[in-house]
């Protein structure tokens, strides 16, 4: 829909309004800053007063972050409805002096919706939509679209309907050079995107869409929308966003803060298990085995194998007497513990009790045997005492513990993969080659695909809560004692000396704060944000979960994720044509059915905002080879650059890439994408504006210019190599070139050959 820049007078008019809005924003900011500094100065008081202070502290801090985030592009739109104007912006502002009338509507408010949805076919009462563009606090452009015919004619514009709203603003955003950081899109959200962002669906919403259709953007704006609309519900439980890799999380990291939202946890699957960072790269084979549900039996068996029966009886000494831990005792105790059906660590006390009971009875039978009547001379209490003493005996307890040790998931997994014997026992169904793929040293670190296995093991092992609670209680007591010590040091004497030795006028630390208060201040947990607390707690359940590049998750990863969202309120965005991980999915139905049956909804995005039409012509041919049924999204623009290929000798490949990168002198970003070997060989090209990446690391990202090196090697590197090539081709916002020595995959044969006369 063509729109037009308006006259200087109109800009001036809007400038006055925008200036007024900024004036009000300054007022709100000053108010929050003053209140916050007052709250920070207050100390002491009842626990209730302290907790109120904590809430206000958080409230004003969040308000200030919100106001700062809204500074750029505070107001970006306006709609005219019948006799009414509505200004749309990054946050809502009310006019205090004018009956609290709305001066600026938050983009997420229901009344702002027509700004995104109105079309000439369905104007929804809107006669004109105005995009207001600003730099700093200055209005730089005002673009209007007339949605009813009469108004359009009066303004001298003809309107069409190509399904794209706010064309000038949109194209300005899309054509801008990339900075390496994703931007928010509140100013130009399109109708089909808005419908997803505000969807009321309360189970799993799947957003399928080709490359560049704004899936990531939509997912992030949906997070912001849900936090605005369901703040009460979501602020406490938090929102979790899963992305494919750390580079991607960095790339999107600023979008939510720029919308004033800071309390969202961003993580990869590999980093979701608390306390473990994915530092190891798996081979394709290992990743595939670890991602499949078949690994569950291996993990169960690995845990059972840690519940041992000794090969030979174990001779022990207790108080100079000899006792024997024989196979029968252990087998019976193990049977009793297993039949409790509790996880390993929680069943352990049952095993220990059963063994100690049997050993105490064995000793009692020897010591107390009454030769006269065959009974026992020892009383029940004597035997109970014996049991207690045995529990204190380090030799006995270490022998018992070795048979049923308390285990952590990390230990089980590390020891399993490091020991060919353990692996063969736990995974007889795997071939030797498969087991060799899983093998690694004990201190070899964990991979992303290990995180779901650790999570599964945590379930199989269980955490003995009683010990955990006792530890927490002890820690708290110690913290109070420390705080008491700190107060004593602060006053320089014990509390009872105060009256005699010190001037009563001097305000003592004790007057301001007591030990439990001080301990509370030091208790990091009490001051953590929801996202921080959630990140450290494996059993945390979130209010909403968003998964980007969801097609990449393995079956095991889904199990891990579903534990964190029992209400199953999720938004999954992805594209099954871009699945690169062999453990990933090509069917949403297959992945979701076990968890939500039919209660999931599929929505689609159809317009490509990133990749220009010229590049999509080639990408279309690659997609046809992956899945002839899929259609490529329609590109919203052309870039004017013809994608090219350059055929060189093998020995010249890297030098040619270097020369091509050197030619990229304009603003914006460049990516060199190749297989692992080429990426290593070209790593020195990396700079602020140049990235050298495998397809896996380029997932979800975009660059002004993309150079693909040796595409056939990318295809050969993985069973889903064509999908990887499709991803690589669709990363560019402007220019695409291919450098190769090997023959090109057939789907790329239409690229324009670049020669010395026709460089690129
Ligand atoms: N309505 C919009 N207004 C402005 N820019 C938009 C809009 N929608 C999408 N974009 C831009 O288009 C580009 C592609 O969006 P995004 O990365 O979200 O796509 P995607 O579907 O996740 O792609 P892929 O599947 O390839 O990772 C981004 O630069 C994004 O900011």
From TrEMBL:
One term under GO cellular component: cytosol
A single MF term (Gene Ontology): ATP binding
Alphabetical list of InterPro entries matching this protein: (+)RNA_virus_helicase_core_dom, DNA_helicase_UvrD/REP, P-loop_NTPase, UvrD-like_ATP-bd
Residues given in the record as ATP binding sites: 209-216
One biological process term in Gene Ontology: recombinational repair
Pfam family, one: Viral_helicase1
SUPFAM superfamilies per UniProt: P-loop containing nucleoside triphosphate hydrolases
Entry keyword Nucleotide-binding: yes
Ranges of residues in domain UvrD-like helicase ATP-binding: 188-612
Keywords annotated in UniProt: ATP-binding, Helicase, Hydrolase, Nucleotide-binding
Protein name (database record): Helicase
Species this chain originates from: Rhodococcus oxybenzonivorans
């Amino acid at each position: 829909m063509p729109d037009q820049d308006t006259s200087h007078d109109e800009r001036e008019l809007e400038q006055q309004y925008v200036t007024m809005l900024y004036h009000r924003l300054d007022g709100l900011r000053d108010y929050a800053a003053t209140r916050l500094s007052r709250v920070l100065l207050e100390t002491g008081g009842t626990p209730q007063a302290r907790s109120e202070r904590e809430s206000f502290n958080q409230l004003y801090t969040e308000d200030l972050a919100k106001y700062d985030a809204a500074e750029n592009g505070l107001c970006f739109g306006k709609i005219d409805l019948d006799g009414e104007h509505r200004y749309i912006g990054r946050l809502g502002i009310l006019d205090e002096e004018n009956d609290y009338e709305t001066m600026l509507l938050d983009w997420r408010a229901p009344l702002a919706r027509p700004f995104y949805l109105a079309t000439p076919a369905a104007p929804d009462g809107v006669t004109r939509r105005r995009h207001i563009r600003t730099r700093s606090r200055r209005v730089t452009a005002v673009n209007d679209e007339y949605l009813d015919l009469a108004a359009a004619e009066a303004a001298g514009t003809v309107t069409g309907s190509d399904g794209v709203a706010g064309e000038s603003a949109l194209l300005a955003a899309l054509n801008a050079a990339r900075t390496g950081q994703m931007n928010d899109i509140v100013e130009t959200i399109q109708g089909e995107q808005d419908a997803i962002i505000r969807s009321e669906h309360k189970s799993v919403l799947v957003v399928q869409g080709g490359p560049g259709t704004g899936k990531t953007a939509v997912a992030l704006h949906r997070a912001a929308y849900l936090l605005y609309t369901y703040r009460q519900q979501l602020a406490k439980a938090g929102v979790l966003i899963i992305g494919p890799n750390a580079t991607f999380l960095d790339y999107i990291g600023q979008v939510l803060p720029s919308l004033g939202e800071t309390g969202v946890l961003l993580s990869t699957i590999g980093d979701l298990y608390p306390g473990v960072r994915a530092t190891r790269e798996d081979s394709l084979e290992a990743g595939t085995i670890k991602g499949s549900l078949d690994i569950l039996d291996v993990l169960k068996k690995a845990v059972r194998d840690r519940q041992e029966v000794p090969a030979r009886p174990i001779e022990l000494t207790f108080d100079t007497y000899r006792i024997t831990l024989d196979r029968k005792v252990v087998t019976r105790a193990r049977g009793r513990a297993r039949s409790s059906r509790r996880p390993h660590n929680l069943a352990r006390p049952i095993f220990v009790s059963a063994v100690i009971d049997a050993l105490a009875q064995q000793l009692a039978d020897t010591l107390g045997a009454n030769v006269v009547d065959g009974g026992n001379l020892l009383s029940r209490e004597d035997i109970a005492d014996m049991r207690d003493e045995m529990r204190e005996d380090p030799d006995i307890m270490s022998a018992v513990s070795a048979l049923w040790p308390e285990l952590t998931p990390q230990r089980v997994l590390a020891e399993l993969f490091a020991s060919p014997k353990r692996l063969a026992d736990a995974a007889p169904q795997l071939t030797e080659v498969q087991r060799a793929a899983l093998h690694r040293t004990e201190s070899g670190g964990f991979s992303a695909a290990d995180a779901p296995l650790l999570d599964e093991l945590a379930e199989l092992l269980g955490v003995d809560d009683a010990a955990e609670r006792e530890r927490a209680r002890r820690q708290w007591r110690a913290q109070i004692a420390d705080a008491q010590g700190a107060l004593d040091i602060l006053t320089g004497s014990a509390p009872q000396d105060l009256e005699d030795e010190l001037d009563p006028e001097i305000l003592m630390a004790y007057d301001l704060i007591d030990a439990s208060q001080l301990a509370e201040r030091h208790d990091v947990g009490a001051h953590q944000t929801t996202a921080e607390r959630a990140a450290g707690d494996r059993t945390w359940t979130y209010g909403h979960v968003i998964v980007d590049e969801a097609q990449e998750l393995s079956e095991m990863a889904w199990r891990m994720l579903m534990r964190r969202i029992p209400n199953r309120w999720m938004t999954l965005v992805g594209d099954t044509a871009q699945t690169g991980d062999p453990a990933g999915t090509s069917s949403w139905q297959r992945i979701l059915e076990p968890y939500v049956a039919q209660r999931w909804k599929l929505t689609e995005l159809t317009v490509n905002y990133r990749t220009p039409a010229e590049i999509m012509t080639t990408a279309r041919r690659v997609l046809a080879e992956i899945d002839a049924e899929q259609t490529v999204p329609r590109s919203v623009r052309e870039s004017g650059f013809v994608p090219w290929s350059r055929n060189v000798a093998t020995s010249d490949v890297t030098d040619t890439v270097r020369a091509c990168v050197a030619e990229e002198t304009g603003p914006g970003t460049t990516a060199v994408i190749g297989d692992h070997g080429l990426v290593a060989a070209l790593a020195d090209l990396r700079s602020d504006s140049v990235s050298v990446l495998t397809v896996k690391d380029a997932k979800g990202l975009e660059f002004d210019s993309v150079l693909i090196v040796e595409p056939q090697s990318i295809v050969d590197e993985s069973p889903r190599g064509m999908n990887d090539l499709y991803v690589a081709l669709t990363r560019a916002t402007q220019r695409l070139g291919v450098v190769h020595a090997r023959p090109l995959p057939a789907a790329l044969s239409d690229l324009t050959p670049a020669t010395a006369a026709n460089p690129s």
